[in-house]
Write a structure and sequence with these properties.
The chain is α+β, with helices and mostly antiparallel strands. It has helices spanning 20-27, 31-40, 52-55, 80-89, 147-156, 169-195, 199-219, and strands at 6-7, 13-17, 41-50, 66-73, 94-100, 103-113, 121-128, 132-133, 139-140. 41% of the residues lie in helices and 25% in strands.
Length: 221
């Protein structure tokens, strides 16, 4: 996987500190979630606003703008419910850049309007890049025809499985979710095999493992 760090254009810089209470107003988090914000997050900066007026790409209904949020952490662990809360509060796709101890980590979810109600957003699981040094070279923004095309390319840089020919981002994410689910199943089955004493049960579990391995191989290509 490449670094997934991009050089966002200066004209798109927004640079506004986002107070946590503003997020609370729009997302109504529980007391426990507010406690996580206090415990884990030092500061949130709305760093860039990629929009038709800042990067000269036309908006699309699913992606009118893309926001880049810098989140400075108090420790290297972040509960994804914190990011989910920010995503709920901001009605645009967001690419997060986490900062801790002179390192940076890109992370985002595939955020899209709900098919049944376009005023609501679907928030999937989070795709995470590696922690990297702050001086890691950044790549230029991908060439795109519109905001949706740009968002898909930015997000695909975070996905651990490459796209198939002509595969949409939605289908790629669905395949990736299946792959994760099968991987979890495989690990649980492997743990059962390691504890199993009966030979006939071991044979049965090994057969299931081979079948799952085959499914994983197919999903990863």
């Amino acid at each position: 996987m490449s670094s997934a760090l991009f050089a966002y254009p200066k004209q798109a810089q927004f640079g506004h500190v986002l107070p946590k209470n503003k997020i609370y107003e729009h997302a109504s988090p529980s007391s426990a979630l507010k406690a996580l914000f206090v415990e884990q997050v030092e500061q949130i900066v709305w760093q860039y606003k990629l929009a038709p007026e800042t990067i000269n790409l036309p908006a699309k209904p699913a992606v009118p703008e893309i926001q880049i949020f810098d989140v400075t952490l108090k420790n290297p662990e972040l509960d994804y419910d914190v990011l989910r809360c920010i995503d709920k509060a901001i009605p645009f796709p967001i690419i997060f850049q986490l900062y801790y101890d002179n390192r940076i980590q890109p992370i985002a979810t595939y955020k899209r309007p709900n098919d049944a109600d376009s005023s609501k957003w679907v928030i999937d699981g989070y795709f995470v890049g590696e922690w990297q040094s702050l001086d890691t070279p950044r790549q230029s923004l991908p060439v795109a025809l519109d905001m949706q095309g740009l968002y898909e390319q930015l997000l695909r840089k975070l996905l651990p499985l490459p796209p198939r020919d002509h595969e949409t981002l939605k289908h790629q994410v669905e395949r990736l979710n299946q792959w994760h689910s099968k991987q979890n199943e495989y690990q649980k089955l492997q743990a059962r095999l390691n504890k199993e004493k009966q030979f006939n049960r071991k044979v049965e579990i090994n057969t299931q493992l081979r079948h799952l391995k085959s499914e994983l191989d197919q999903l990863s290509r």
